[in-house]
Design goal:
single chain, five-stranded antiparallel sheet, 1 helix, 5 strands, globular
Length: about 70
């Protein structure tokens, strides 16, 4: 399943397959957006069993996690 969400300065793309989810968070601009990404991560990703890895991609962050 694929879902695209716009939240404040962020675009969040969620890709879900069986027991794994990848989330790509696109940051629109500036340090305020980085704070929004950190806040989003605390509020949204803590619902899942654990982030296996994440990587900053310049304009976004890619998360890989178990559901």
């Amino acid at each position: 399943m694929c879902t695209l969400i716009q939240q404040e300065e962020l675009f969040v793309l969620k890709l879900t397959r069986k027991d794994t989810m990848m989330v790509l968070v696109f940051i629109s601009d500036g340090s305020f957006a980085m704070n929004a990404e950190e806040s989003w991560r605390r509020n949204e990703l803590e619902k899942y069993s654990g982030i296996q890895s994440y990587k900053h991609l310049g304009t976004g962050v890619l998360y890989n996690m178990d559901l």
